[in-house]
Amino acid sequence: MRSHRRRKQTWTAKMAEEQQESSQGEVEGVNCLAYDEAIIAQQDRIQQEIANSNPLVSDRQELTVLQREYAEEDSVYQLKIKDLHKKYSYIRKTRPDGNCFYRAFGFAHLESLLDDSKELQRFKAVAAKSKLDLVNEGFTEFTIEDFHNTFMDLIELCEKQPSLQELLNSFNDQNVSDYVVVYLRLLTSGYLQREHVFFQHFIEGGRSVKEFCQQEVEPMSKESDHIHIIALAQALNVSILVEYMDRGEGGTVNHHVFPEGGDPRIFLLYRPGHYDILYK
Amino acid sequence: MENKYNLKSPAVKRLMKEAAELREPTEHYHAQPLEENLFEWHFSVRGPPDSDFDGGVYHGRIVLPPEYPMKPPSIILLTPNGRFEVGKKICLSISGHHPETWQPSWSIRTALIAIIGFMPTKGEGAIGSLDYTPEERKALAKKSQDFFCESCSCCMRSALLALTPNSNPSAEDHKAKELAQQINFKAESSLSRQSSESSGAASEPSTHTLGDSSTASGQEDADRPQAEQAEPPSVSRAEQPPAAPTERPLSPRQRRAQRRGEQPPREPAANRAAFVPANRQHQDESHAGSAALILVLTLALAVLIFRRIYLAQEYKFDYDF
């Protein structure tokens, strides 16, 4: 899990550099004590830029768009994209805001339910019951019920066989979309805490599972790692396949199914620091 | 109040619910929105037992951002208490040891319990924190009962339910302490407050925590525990509150320090050492200090970028071989 985290850093370091370069000019005139404000304002601006150029969930695009994202002579990535083409034809991108795993999962799964009413009914029952499980674990009912209601509303929307565009619109409404992300984070946190004896072995830095959930799972914008994906996949009993594409040698994309041995319904593409949705 | 607000707004929906939930005062806390503004609340909290604040009841304001509960509330104490400066925002820390951020499933009640739990902790010179002597705090606790708030016309003597022999303060107290350990509060600096006031109310939301919804900070937080291990503990300690700003400029180096594990450790030691005094210098909060810091960081950044290019080329060369 540690090496997995390191891979993310290429991307974050790049971002930090950009941020620093632009902050130097502006920050100079500000008193040290106002730095906090300046940093926050800066971050807000960067956030806004990301938001302006990336919808929360994009339209489905040909997988060939990936080729153009990397230089032609970038043989490591170009080879891997070719490898990806053998299995997938389309990609749907999500906004890189730290919530991308939850948003990608949420959208991909609900989209798949549009033409699978059996799974839809099973999923609806699991989702409906999940609030009670969280309350029994000590989550405050009145604070989590708005998130749960929004999540259920979307599942019920899927029952009515809406157009794909309708579902996409809901996921691009910041209020709705973020509430779904919050609820998926809560489900992840709830499952990790329920199975804390098992998950404790995978947590670094001497933290308890509860602390980990409060620091790395429940706050918005905290990125997801293997442990989050396993927990959410198991909490909802939905199998997820993640294709890992990074700078590693080999020319092929490795994948991992969560939980192991499952029959995946959802396909995600991981590139350092980010998840998008893949389609066959 | 119901007609005034858009009931479809998630914040309004949630705050209405919280107002109903907190309507009746408990023995330890009470909070309600002002009549004319659902986004501003007044609260009263009882000072924790077994502390210098025992017997005190403290009053304050809570300001909710329009994005609530996705963004955290700001808390301002109005009663002199000897722990927090009066009239200054206490925000979730952006520079604490534990990079805690607000959780949407927390509520105003969570914030109140956290405040209670946080009172007996040490201010440790953080901006906006006060380290009054126990005697002064005890005197203020006694005096706090006489406080009367004109805007919500409530008197501290009758703001909360009276403690009874049956009440179990230790359970509440335990919960409060636990929360205080999770959450890191920090008072907003006076200067930044002035600047935010002068730039108008529009800048108010920006006083909330850094961790909120920004990707970069989210990632940084996630990375931080590792990065801190790579540093001498005294430095990260010294960086505490006033050095919060250095957090951002430092991060590229921290990331490189982390990545050094993968790459040959070729960074000259002198380069690294140069950063430490720069940090300390920054603590002087002098303008010259920050200018020097920026200069050093720019140079260091240039060195690191060149090094990276160099390494990348060398890598390719090896590869072609």
From TrEMBL, chain A:
Transmembrane segments: none annotated. It catalyses: Thiol-dependent hydrolysis of ester, thioester, amide, peptide and isopeptide bonds formed by the C-terminal Gly of ubiquitin (a 76-residue protein attached to proteins as an intracellular targeting signal). Its EC number is 3.4.19.12. InterPro entries: OTU_dom, Otubain, Papain-like_cys_pep_sf, Peptidase_C65_otubain, Peptidase_C65_otubain_sub1, Peptidase_C65_otubain_sub2. One of its GO terms (molecular function) is cysteine-type deubiquitinase activity. The active site is at D97, C100 (nucleophile), H274. It is an enzyme of class 3 (hydrolase). One of its GO terms (biological process) is negative regulation of double-strand break repair. The record marks I230, Y244, D246, Y270, Y275 as: Interacts with free ubiquitin. GO terms for cellular component: nucleus. Gene3D superfamilies: Peptidase C65 Otubain, subdomain 1, Peptidase C65 Otubain, subdomain 2. It comes from the Eukaryota. Keywords: Hydrolase, Protease, Thiol protease, Ubl conjugation pathway. Residues 1-27 are annotated as: Disordered. Residues 89-280 form the OTU domain. Pfam families: Peptidase_C65. The keyword tRNA processing does not apply. SUPFAM superfamilies: Cysteine proteinases. Belongs to the peptidase C65 family. This is Ubiquitin thioesterase. The lineage of its organism: Eukaryota, Metazoa, Chordata, Craniata, Vertebrata. The gene is otub1b.
Automatic annotation (TrEMBL), chain B:
Component of the HRD1 complex, which comprises at least SYNV1/HRD1, DERL1/2, FAM8A1, HERPUD1/HERP, OS9, SEL1L and UBE2J1. Interacts with E3 ligase RNF26. Interacts with E3 ligase RNF133. Residues 207-218 have a biased composition (Polar residues). The gene is ube2j1. GO terms for biological process: ERAD pathway. InterPro entries: Ub_conjugating_enzyme, UBC, UBQ-conjugating_enzyme/RWD. This is Ubiquitin-conjugating enzyme E2 J1. Residues 187-270 are annotated as: Disordered. Residues 10-160 form the UBC core domain. The chain crosses the membrane at residues 288-306. Keywords: ATP-binding, Endoplasmic reticulum, Membrane, Nucleotide-binding, Phosphoprotein, Transferase, Transmembrane, Transmembrane helix, Ubl conjugation, Ubl conjugation pathway. Catalyzes the covalent attachment of ubiquitin to other proteins. Functions in the selective degradation of misfolded membrane proteins from the endoplasmic reticulum (ERAD) and is essential for cells to recover from ER stress. Plays a role in MAPKAPK2-dependent translational control of TNF-alpha synthesis. Also acts as a platform for perinuclear positioning of the endosomal system by mediating ubiquitination of SQSTM1 through interaction with the E3 ubiquitin-protein ligase RNF26. Plays a role in male fecundity through the interaction with the E3 ubiquitin-protein ligase RNF133. One of its GO terms (cellular component) is endoplasmic reticulum membrane. Its main location: endoplasmic reticulum. Residues 187-206 have a biased composition (Low complexity). GO terms for molecular function: ATP binding; transferase activity. It is found in: Endoplasmic reticulum membrane. It is a single-pass type IV membrane protein. It comes from the Eukaryota.
